[in-house]
Each structure stands twice: as C-alpha cells, then as structure tokens.
Specification:
The complex is a heterodimer.
Chain A (H helix, E strand, L loop, with lengths): L1 H16 L6 H12 L2 H4 L3 H18 L3 H17 L11 H21 L4 H17 L1 H4 L3 H15 L4 H13 L8 H17 L12 H8 L4
Helix pairs in contact in A: 2-4, 4-5, 5-6, 5-7, 6-7, 7-9, 10-11, 10-12, 11-12
Chain B lengths: L1 H20 L2 E8 L9 E4 L5 E3 L5 E6 L3 E8 L6 E7 L4 E6 L16 E4 L11 H5 L8 H5 L24 E5 L2 E2 L22 E7 L13 E7 L7 E7 L2 E9 L5 E11 L1 H6 L5 E18 L5 E18 L7 E22 L2 E21 L5 E2 L9 E19 L5 E18 L5 E20 L4 E12 L4 E15 L2 E12 L15 E14 L2 E21 L2 E22 L6 E15 L15 E11 L4 E10 L3 E7 L4 E8 L3 E10 L10 E10 L9 E4 L6 E4 L6 E10 L4 H8 L1
The chains are: A mainly alpha, B mainly beta.
Chain lengths: ~220, ~750
C-alpha cells in the first residue's frame, strides 16, 4: 500500500517536473479543448484576435497540426466580421477589414498545407472571400463573389454532410437583402436542413470542428 | 530507516516538484517608441504560452517552461521582434520596441501628378476601375471619365486628352508598358473620336498629369498608363445589342486556371441612331465600324504571366457639310481606316528579388481620306480659287515599340529599375492634289532610350523616386537626358504631401515632318506640389503646378503642307487644382467634384505671338454623382461638366508674317449627362445569365454648346463648331452567360 502510494506520488511528481516529456498529444488536446469552445461563444473583435493568437502559438509550436491554424484563421475572420456591425454595407471598409482577412488567409493557407482537400478549410476560405468582398463590394464582387461560392461548392463536394456548408448557405440567404436574391424564409429552410446535418454530424474528436449549431438556431428563432 | 530514506526522497522530489511547478510570469510593454502597440501577439517560441497586448501595449502571461527561450512579438505592419530570454524562477519584465515595417499598405506613395484607378493600392487609388466606366458623361470611353478629373480640358471638337495647357499630342498612352499609336479612331474634322479600346480589358489605370516616371518618355504633358487584365475568373460568353451596335464575345478559362483565350467581335452602325437623332452632317456613308479582338494569357510560373492582345478594326464614313467657303456648295469628306494592333507583354520573377517586364507592340494603320466640293445637286465640282479643297490623302503607318525593364527589390519596399526602350515608326503619306498630281512623303524614325529609376523608402513616412532617361532620335540626330525626381512625406495616417520635378522631351510632331531644317526636342519642365488626404471613403487632393515649355515647334505652310521650321516656340502653364470625393456621407451615394484653374500662354506652330491657345479654358469643373437604388436595382448616374469660355482666333498670312485676323472667346461650356443602368440579376446567387439595360442621355437640358469657330479660307466668314447633335440618347441591353459581368456589360456599350 505504501509502496503504491509512493509510486503514485513519484509518477505524479515526474509528470509535474517534466511536462514536456508527457505525450505531446495529450498536452495539445488539453490546450485545444480549453480554447475550441470559445469559437462558438466569443463575438468580440479583440477577444477573437487574442483567441486567434493563442491558436497560432499552438500551431507554430506543434508545426504538424492543421486544426490550430484552422481555428486561428476562423477566429481571425470572425474578428473581421465584428467590424461590419453597423457599417455601411455598400460603402465598403476595406482599410479596416482587409488586415483581418489577410491574416486569416495566411493562417488558413498554412492549415491547407497540412490538410489538403478539407471541407472545413474550404468553408473558412469562403468566409474569408466574403470578408474581402464586403470590404469593397463595388470593385470586388466580380472576383470575390464567384470565389466565395466556388469555395463553398468545393466544401460541399468534399463533404456533403458538413453542416457548416449549409449554415453558411443559409446565413447568406437569410441576411442578403431581398432585392439581391436574399430570402428569409428560404434561408430558414436551409438553416433547418443545417440543423439536421448538425444532429447527424459526429466530429472526429473533441477538438475537431463542430461549431455553428447555436448560430443556426439563433437565426431560425429570428435573431441576428 | 529505509522508509525514512524513501520519505526523504519523496520530500525532496515534492519540494523540487513544487519548485518546478511554480509558474513564472512574463510581462512587459510593447511600443513603437512613440505609442503603445495594442493587439500585438507575444509568444514564447515553440511553446503554447503567450499573450496579446492590451490597449496600453501591456502583456502578461504565466509559463511553466524553464530554460532558454525566444520571445517573439509580431504585429501587422511591424517587423517581427525576437529576443532570447532565460526563464527560471524569477518573473521576467521586458519592454519591447517594435520597428515599423515599410509596406505598401502603410507606406507613403509618391503621388504628385498622378491619379491611380486601381484596386491594388487602395490607399492611393482616387478612382476605382469601375468609376472609369460608370461616369455618365464618359460614354463608356476611358478618356471620357478622365475628363472629369482636374487638369484636363473639355475639348469636344477633337479627340485626346488636353492636360494642363498641353496639346492632345503631348499626352501619350501606354498599354502594359508599351506605347500605343492610334489610341483613338482616326480624326474627322470637328468631331471628337472615341478611344479604340474597351475600358474593360484594363484592370488598372494610372493617369499622370505631370511629373511621371522615367520609364515613360516622348510626352511633354501627360502619360496614360493602362494595365490589361490577367486571367478571367471564369469562362463566359456575352452578347450586346444597342441602337448603335451588335457585339458578341467569348472568354475561355482553362480547367487548370493557368491559361485563357478569348475573342470579341462587334459591328457598329450609326445609321439607326442618325435616322432618329438629326445630325449636322449629311452622311452618304454613315459611320460603320467592324472590330475584332482576340487575346490569350498564360501563367508562365507562380508569378509570371504572358499576355497577348490583338485588335483589328475597319471603319468608314463619308459626309458633306455646307461649305463655308462658297455658299450653296458643300464640303465633302470621306475616311476609310484600317487598324491592326498587337501587344505582347511578359512579366516574370527571376528570383533573388529580380523581376523582368518585357513588352512589344506593333501597329499598322491605314487612312484613306478624300475631300472635295459638291454643288446642291450632289455633283462633284472644282471651284476656281478653291481647287485645294479637292484632295486625296493616303496615310500608312507602321509602328513598333519594345521595352525591357529589370527591377531589383532592395530593402523593404525600395527598388531599383532600369531598362531600355526602342521605338520604330514609319509613316508614308501620298497627297494627291485636285489635278491628280501626287506628292509622296515618307518618314522613318528610330528612338532609342535608356532609363533608370529608384524607389527609396527611408521610412514609412518618407519616400522618394529618383530617375533619369536618356534618348536618341535618329530623325533629329540628337540626344537628351531627362531627370525626374519626386518626394512624398506622410503627415498623418492617410494624409501626405508630395513634390515632383522633372524634365520631359518630345520630338516635333510627325505631321510637321520631314523638315529641311535642323530641329531639336521640344522640352517641358514640371514643378508640382501636392497635398492629399484619403480617409474613410473620402478623398481630398490639391495640387499646384508650374510647367515651362521650351523649344516648341514653329511651323510654316509651304505647298499644301505645314512644316516645322524651328524650335523657337515657348510657353508656360500654371494653375491650381482640387479634387474631392465622398462615398461616406450619404448611404449608397458616391460623388466627386473637381476644379481646375489654368493660366497658360504659348507661342508655337504658326502663332504670331504667345497667347492662350484655343484648347485651354481658365476654369474647368466637373461634378459626378452615382446613386445606387437597391430597391429597384438601378444605378443612377449624373455628370455635369463646365468649362469657362476658351479663346478662339484665326491666323492669316499676309505674305511675310502670320497675324491674328480675329480673336475672341467662345461661350462657357455646360453639359449635363444622365445614365440609368438596370441590373435585374444583381445579387442573385449563382445565376446562369445576367442582363443589363442601359439608357443614357447626353446634354439632357439641350444646352447650346460651342467648341470654337472655323473660318473660311479667306478668313472673311466664321461659323461655330458645335456638337453633331445637341442631345444624344442611347439604349441597349447586354447579356452575359457564365459569369456575373454586369458591370462589364454596362460599360462596353455605354
């Protein structure tokens, strides 16, 4: 008994003394598990940029994991979206939003280098294209418009069960003014489909992408 | 005992563990010397630990790591900062000073004299590419939009850009770096011609009203630098139908998106429009134009691109106007033009910060012009004393321009550029007089140029461009050297001041050559000071300039030809210009206002003495308004152009001297144009087709416009030069399949 206690203590101590010698996967997973849920809850520019930096640090330290780069890009593009609130949608604000779009793009490119043909990465690719687009719609909708829809279609092709593809499609439909082809009811329908996909969706691990369900629900309930 | 020893070990281990477990705080402050840097990312390299700085630039984080680490601080527009630190039991507090990185986004731009329409450098772009073509008074013509900018004149009786007291010949146009000859359709008396190229084959436009780069020469006043588009986004087909023309095209993008090809053909016939809108001219052949263009573009590497654009055009027209020389008779004019243009451009990254830009262009242009007189029954006649009015003019031009530019990036944004340019031109003219006698003429010219230029970014706030250009002309058998210097200083974010100085040379115009006299280069010296502020969708700029002309060509009329005789001409131009654009104040409304004051005089050609030339108005101003109405999916565009009365004069020859036989000022010029674009498909997601309906009306208030006066041969009678019709209405529909090219189609046809 005493021996057991002793071994237990020693092993605990050694874990504490040599944290780096513990399996890297475990530390990585724990760090990621701590950060990933914020993606669904945080909606504040500085907070998201801080979150993005945290993911980027993990990504740079790990070097072979696509997920932290992916989340870093996602947090960054969301940070860019927070700048759009209340701004003149047609006027464009590229000076403000482009730095976030550019940074997100750099991070996502790194994620893509580590994981090719990844549906989730193409969803974020689409979000970045839209962020660029709204920065200067008059000049950019001819290039970033098709780029965004192409990215989303690629995401769908790579994984037709990815709920975030439907989430993005539904949100676009819902938030676009009617004269531009938007339609709240149709948008809701797509979001309902997204929810079904969410219910069926099994993320590969606790830290793989699984965000967006609450957002879909909020819009179906008529929120913004 | 054994147990005790074990306990001791445990104790030691525990103590050590406690010691090891102690987190160490690393904190500090990040500034750029002057102010805190908020939002910077601080990290312990190769660990997960780090933080983001707060609004006062402070950061603090805890780490359990021990040993030697690199602290890395990064923030956009600053150079990454690295510092070795030792993490042990003591907290670390560290102050970090970041150095600004000189980037295109934050650096000052050397902008004196230039208007840039481009998406690339948002910070300096005063106009976007779309603006070029959604300006109501532009009629879909690139130069039409540029005429709403300060520094340009509202000259309606002939084509071209008249910049800051300069003639149209003093503005040169370049596509992908090489000179374009015959940028406009061939001249027709008293009717301004359009530029040949669709505005939508260009992605970037730099319009310099002075002080431009040493890469460009042979233009005393202004350079219009156009950059053609790279690969299209998608394959697409388009069709356009309007009261003036039919147009169809196809662009094919390869599956791997590394190459594309395309063509476009159009047929223009003004018969229908002229049947409805009465013209001053009586057309026996209404203007008919056949255009065909083709292109291919190949990505030669990740950054390399090879582009070809080829253009063929044939146009003809013939008309009569009541003759001012002999009442009851008519003057006849006919023109048949064939133009062939090829442009090949290649850019490549050579590695080790070297870049290559190569361009070649070739033009073959033929004009068949004839003049004569008719009686009231439309029979050709030759009147005694007016025999010269019957003539034939056959012009053939072959032009080649090649340019090679090497660029080496230096530290930051600084770069050095150098290269050479070769221009060949061969003009053959046959003038046939009323009695069938032919007077052939020919002129071959080689101009060789070497140039070098350096962009020097001292800091983000201070930059300079210093260059020089050396030219040799085979016709003049002379060389010149033209230094160019400009400096820009950033006063605050978005606010900057620039200065520019430069010498510009140009050969006497080919139309006054060959000459039996020894001639030299004409010369202009530019001094420009500019203030610019571009913040939040609002732009303001003010520029003052002084331009001095030396060695301008003087001419003399000998048998039927006006020939350059010496370079004793001179002149100057000074003025102040303002530009204000606001996209912010009113939602979905975008407007700009420009105003120019110009004070210029010159003695050139056959002027008896220096006066203000007839292409220079003292005050010019434009207001352009664009309103997008989301509800009805319509774009409403209005433009108002104003110019104070320009001088007019007639120059007569008394046998020994030229004299002004008449002098005056034309009335002020006003023009209000209006255009509506209806885009029913806008915003539809992934539609297969797009349609744009266009209605545009020029001179909507039907104001009488006078461009100048023309005189009878003997100078005894004068007559106002006016637009061919007071008002013009244009209606068209454009369809595009495969890709949303709504904007493009709008403008191809306007």
């Amino acid at each position: 008994m005493k021996k057991t206690v002793f071994i237990l203590i020693v092993s605990l101590v050694s874990v504490a003394v040599f944290p780096q010698s513990s399996p890297p996967g475990e530390k990585y997973t724990k760090a990621m598990e701590k950060l990933v849920p914020s993606i669904d809850t945080l909606w504040n520019g500085d907070g998201l940029r801080d979150l993005s930096n945290s993911f980027e640090r993990i990504a740079d330290a790990e070097k072979t994991q696509w997920l932290p780069y992916y989340y870093a890009a996602l947090a960054r593009v969301n940070a860019g979206y927070t700048l759009l609130n209340g701004s003149n949608a047609m006027g464009g604000n590229a000076d403000k939003t482009d730095p976030d779009a550019k940074k997100a793009e750099e991070l996502l490119n790194k994620a893509e280098e580590l994981s090719k043909d990844n549906s989730e990465i193409f969803v974020v690719r689409k979000m970045i294209a839209i962020l660029y687009l709204v920065g200067d719609p008059m000049n950019r909708y001819m290039t970033y418009g098709p780029a965004a829809s192409q990215a989303l279609e690629t995401a769908r092709k790579l994984n037709p069960e990815n709920p975030r593809v439907y989430l993005q499609e539904g949100l676009d439909k819902y938030t676009t003014p009617e004269q531009y082809g938007g339609n709240k009811e149709e948008g809701k329908k797509i979001l309902e489909e997204a929810i079904k996909k969410y219910e069926a969706f099994k993320p590969e691990s606790s830290i793989h992408p699984n965000w967006g369900l609450n957002l879909a629900k909020r819009f179906i309930a008529g929120g913004q | 005992m054994r147990l005790r020893r074990k306990a001791l070990v445990v104790l030691i281990l525990l103590a050590f563990a406690g010691f090891a477990n102690a987190q160490v705080t690393i904190s500090g402050r990040v500034t750029d010397k002057k102010k805190p840097v908020a939002g910077a990312s601080v990290s312990l390299k190769d660990t997960y630990d780090g933080a983001t700085t707060d609004s006062s630039g402070r950061f603090s984080f805890k780490t359990m790591e021990k040993g030697e680490f690199t602290l890395l601080v990064t923030y956009v527009n600053y150079k990454p900062y690295e510092q070795k630190i030792t993490v042990d039991k003591n907290p670390v507090d560290i102050d970090i000073i970041l150095k600004e990185e000189i980037t295109e986004l934050s650096a000052v731009t050397v902008s004196a004299g230039t208007f840039e329409a481009s998406d690339r450098k948002r910070s300096t772009a005063v106009l976007d590419p779309i603006d070029i073509v959604t300006t109501a008074s532009a009629n879909g013509d690139i130069t039409g939009a540029l005429k709403t900018l300060p520094g340009t004149q509202q000259v309606g009786e002939s084509e071209g850009l008249y910049v800051r007291g300069g003639t149209a010949a003093e503005t040169k146009t370049f596509i992908d770096g090489t000179l374009v000859n015959n940028f406009f359709y061939s001249s027709v008396p008293n009717i301004a011609q359009f530029s040949r190229f669709s505005p939508f084959i260009f992605k970037g436009t730099v319009f310099s009203t002075g002080g431009y780069s040493a890469l460009y020469g042979q233009a005393l006043s202004s350079a219009l630098i156009l950059e053609s588009i790279d690969l299209p986004d998608r394959s697409s087909a388009n069709v356009g139908i309007s009261v003036l023309s039919l147009d169809a095209g196809y662009q094919n993008l390869a599956k791997d998106k590394k190459s594309s090809w395309g063509f476009d053909c159009s047929y223009t016939n003004l018969g229908l429009a002229f049947a409805v809108i009465k013209q001053k001219q009586d057309y026996s052949t209404v203007p008919i134009i056949h255009n065909l263009d083709a292109n291919f573009r190949i990505k030669t590497s990740r950054t390399g691109m090879l582009k070809y654009y080829g253009y063929f055009s044939n146009s003809k027209q013939a008309f009569t106007t009541p003759s001012i020389d002999s009442l009851g008779y008519k003057d006849k004019f006919s023109l048949n033009n064939t133009n062939l243009y090829h442009n090949l451009a290649w850019r490549e990254n050579l590695g080790l910060r070297w870049k290559l830009n190569a361009g070649f262009s070739y033009t073959n242009n033929k004009d068949d012009i004839s003049g004569g007189m008719q009686d009231d029954k439309k029979n050709d006649v030759v009147l005694a004393g007016l025999e010269f009015k019957k003539f034939g003019l056959n012009r053939k031009g072959n032009y080649f321009n090649g340019k090679l530019v090497f660029e080496r990036r230096l530290k930051g944004l600084s770069a050095i550029r150098f290269g050479s340019e070769y221009n060949y031109s061969n003009d053959k003219i046959i003038y046939t007089s009323f009695n069938g006698q032919s007077y052939p003429g020919s002129l071959t010219e080689h101009i060789n140029a070497l140039f070098a230029e350096s962009d020097i970014y001292l800091t983000n706030a201070l930059a300079a461009k210093i260059g020089g250009r050396f030219e040799y002309s085979s016709v003049l058998k002379k060389t010149n050297f033209a230094p160019r210097i400009s400096v820009a200083y950033k006063l605050a974010k978005g606010t900057q001041a620039s200065l520019a100085y430069g010498i510009f040379y140009q050969n006497p115009e080919t139309r006054y050559l060959p000459s039996p006299y020894a001639l030299t280069f004409m010369k202009a010296t530019h001094y420009i000071a500019q203030f610019q502020r571009v913040v939040n969708q609002q732009s303001f700029r003010a520029e003052i300039f002084y331009k001095k002309y030396d060695n301008l060509e003087k001419t003399m009329t000998t048998t039927a030809q006006e020939t350059a005789i010496n370079n004793n001409g001179f002149g100057d131009a000074k003025g102040i210009e303002f530009f204000w654009r606001d996209k912010k104040t009113i939602k979905n409304l975008d407007y700009w206002i420009s105003y120019s004051y110009l004070d210029t005089k010159r003695d050139f050609l056959n002027f008896p003495y220096a006066i203000t030339p007839n292409f220079a108005a003292k005050h010019t101003s434009s207001l352009v308004v664009k309103k997008f109405v989301q509800k009805i999916k319509m774009n409403l565009n209005v433009a108002y152009n104003y110019a104070s009365g320009r001088p007019y004069y007639n120059i007569g020859f008394d046998g020994t001297n030229y004299k002004f036989t008449d002098l005056g000022k034309i009335p002020d010029y006003h023009n209000v144009s209006f255009a509506i674009n209806y885009l029913p498909f806008i915003g539809k997601q992934n539609p297969k087709a797009f349609a744009v309906y266009v209605l545009s009306v020029s001179n909507i208030f039907n104001i009488k416009q006078t461009y100048g006066y023309q005189y009878s041969y003997d100078g005894s009678r004068k007559e106002a030069i006016t637009p061919t019709s007071r008002m013009f209405v244009y209606i068209g529909v454009f369809l595009s399949f495969g890709i949303n090219r709504s904007d493009e189609v709008i403008n191809n046809g306007l």
